[in-house]
Design a protein that fits this description.
5 helices; rod-shaped; six-stranded antiparallel sheet; two-stranded parallel sheet; alpha+beta; 8 strands; single chain; endopeptidase fold (from Nostoc punctiforme)
Length: 285
């Protein structure tokens, strides 16, 4: 027995003939393909085929999207700011327009009031002038009366009352007040203490004895009982114009005389009835 008989052999087992044939065939096919390619290679060497495929870069696309989003956000913010400014300007313009309208209306109202006041003053002056002119012819028929406030004489005509004695009591108090204002200025709408209009003086005189008269001549001409001009008593209210539509009032003080705030040129005066005959009279006391 050989001394190597117990050592296993390391040689690979032989492959089968079929496997060797198959592998030989495959190898031959591959070598044939390489040969063909090698033969065709020199003919196509002048025109190498190259193609580059560019893959999209994710990082650059993301940066562009972010930039577009930031730009859109900035434009939106700018549009919002412009819209806010436009709204604020519109509100400010509306407020200014309302203020201007209110101021214009106030001025227009003041102008209308002033125009009305002037128109009333002009109408009153015209009515007074017309009334005096219409009575000018009648004055020649009146008998002269005393110029004293205490006594006098008359012809007894219907429009000229007889002289009366010095008034006393309430009538004396209001007449004394009226006499104290002689020489004061006439200012339309004034009620003293140094300037009066006709009805303001009459109202103030009666207030001295606790009698509250209406403010204007129209109302004062109906404030008491209508009396005849031939039956006057001291303290009676004389009026010029119609009862309820009088444009002038004064106070009869007796003796055929009256005290009244006549006009801006005369002021508060004491005159006889024939100087400016009244239209009627009312008695309050």
């Amino acid at each position: 027995m050989s001394h190597t008989a117990h050592i296993p052999s390391h040689r690979k087992p032989r492959r089968g003939a079929s496997k060797v044939a198959i592998r030989a065939g495959v190898a031959g096919g591959v070598l044939s393909t390489i040969a063909v390619a090698g033969a065709a290679g020199p003919a196509n060497a002048a025109e190498p085929v190259t193609e580059t495929i560019e893959m999209p870069t994710l990082t650059s696309g993301l940066a562009g999207a972010v930039a577009q989003s930031a730009d859109a956000t900035q434009r939106a913010a700018l549009n919002f700011e412009l819209s806010a400014q436009e709204n604020a300007a519109a509100v400010k313009a509306a407020q200014a327009a309302r203020k201007a309208k209110a101021e214009a209306e106030r001025k227009a109202e003041a102008q209308r009031a002033e125009a009305k006041k002037k128109a009333e003053a002009a109408a009153r002056a015209k009515a007074e002038a017309t009334a005096r002119a219409s009575r000018t012819a009648e004055r020649t028929t009146l008998a002269p009366t005393s110029t004293s406030s205490d006594s006098g004489s008359s012809s007894g005509t219907a429009t000229t009352p007889k002289a009366t004695t010095k008034a006393s009591g309430s009538a004396g108090a209001l007449i004394a007040f009226a006499q104290a204002q002689l020489g004061d200025a006439y200012v339309m709408g004034s009620t003293g203490p140094n300037a009066w209009d006709c009805s303001g003086l009459v109202q103030a005189a009666y207030r001295q004895i606790g009698v509250d008269l209406p403010r204007v001549s129209q109302d004062q001409s109906t404030a008491g009982t209508q009396v005849s001009l031939s039956n006057l008593q001291p303290g009676d209210i004389l009026y010029w114009g119609g009862a309820g539509s009088a444009y002038h009032t004064a106070i009869y003080i007796g003796g055929g005389e009256f005290i009244g705030a006549q006009n801006p040129s005369s002021g508060v005066v004491q005159k006889s009835l024939d100087w400016d005959p009244p239209s009627g009279a009312v008695r309050v006391l």
